[in-house]
Amino acid sequence: MKDVVFPQIDRLMADLDGLAGLVDSSRPGWSRVAMTEVDTHSRYWVADRMRAEGLEVRVDGIGNVIGTLRGRGNHRKAIVVGSHTDTVDGGGRYDGIVGVVGALEVVRMIRESGIVLEHDLRVVDFYNEEANRFELSCLGSRAMAGALTSKHLATQDDHGRTLGATLEAAGWDPQLAGTRWADDEVLGFLELHIEQGPILERQGLPLGVVTSICGISRFRAMFTGQRDHAGTTPMTSRHDAGCAAAGVVLAVEEIATSAESAVGTVGSVTFTPEATSVVTESALLTAEFRSPDDAWFTLAREQIAEATAKHAEKRGLEHSVQWLPWERPTAMDDHVSSVISSSVGQLGHPAAHLYSGAGHDGVQMAKLGPVGMIFIPSAGGRSHCPEEFTDPAQIAVGVHALAQSVVNLDQE
Ligand code: HGY
Ligand code: MN
Ligand code: MN
Ligand code: MN
Fold this sequence. Notes:
By secondary structure, this protein is of the alpha/beta class. It contains twelve helices and 15 strands. The strands form three sheets. Strands 1, 2, 3, 4, 5, 6, 13, 14 and 15 form a nine-stranded mixed beta sheet that branches. A hairpin with a 5-residue loop joins strand 1 and strand 2 (65-69). Helix 1 (9-20) packs antiparallel against helix 3, helix 3 packs across helix 12 (392-410) and helix 8 (241-257) packs antiparallel against helix 9. The radius of gyration is 23 Å and the shape is elongated. The protein starts with 8 loop residues before the first helix and ends with a helix. (2S)-amino(hydroxy)ethanoic acid binds next to loops.
């Protein structure tokens, strides 16, 4: 298998720094949250960068940016590389972004190696990979896989606005025109991503081959009690929705902590009214569980049902729990992962095989074809924060592994 030249770090970092400049400067860290103006603008910036590399570019109805390098063969199936450029609020410069700018560098490296691919190579910047305020993530890849349904689009945020209306307001098409890919057009999807955890750094390894991606299940719990005077209402006759929500916050922590390999996080608790002189009338809590174990989620749901009922009944409250679309744990494809492992070896690197506690577009792309992922180290295991960092030399090693894997998959 032909060796691919090493990436040019300066031009790779020029693209990464270019995106780091397209953020909402009124927010902490590097914020480019999906469905905001700065995100929409940055998608057309990425499209221009793809055109500059000679790719045929289209932006689909939901904002996926797809650049194609034509292969010489007449194959129906394409190789897909890419990731996402949207961030969490107050996020970092590398989560997702490394996989998009790295994929652009792969196009340049393949050309500079004098290699003409057999298969088309599609470089993709997936729309809205991060969990949005509708508690939904991976909207772009979900739409490609035909898994973004009218039910999802009807999901409302805390102000009663639907996801569909919000997408339309951000300049996208709630009918999702041109987003759906056929079930037989992906030879393999390969994503380069930062680990967002401590394992590679602790083991002093430059690369990881991902074995599986976590399942994620998010829910909203709503408690309704009674607004009363905070000074004159005895503790024994209150219907305080806030205290019930606080009980479920700790229940999420307890349920996840008591499980073998699960994590649980409460994202927000909203009290109404927000006043210390009024007993809280209603409380809305949003939370998520993650685990590699499909079956465990059923137990977690039962435990949440018990906890919400217990805290509600104790205070004479009404309550409800709404489970949002579940992303199931997803194993990476054995063959694509073996191509990645052998490519990593061909470049003379060791690699760990590790589970991803972070969600990725690969969960949706696995509905369209075989998926493999390459991890590079995260400093201190930190991510989803301004401290997120990966050394450019480490990014270059990851991009080299991605490029070699693409060529080896293509030449099979
Ligand atoms: O939330 C996640 O796991 C990913 O970073 N989107
Ligand atoms: Mn083929
Ligand atoms: Mn990511
Ligand atoms: Mn993320």
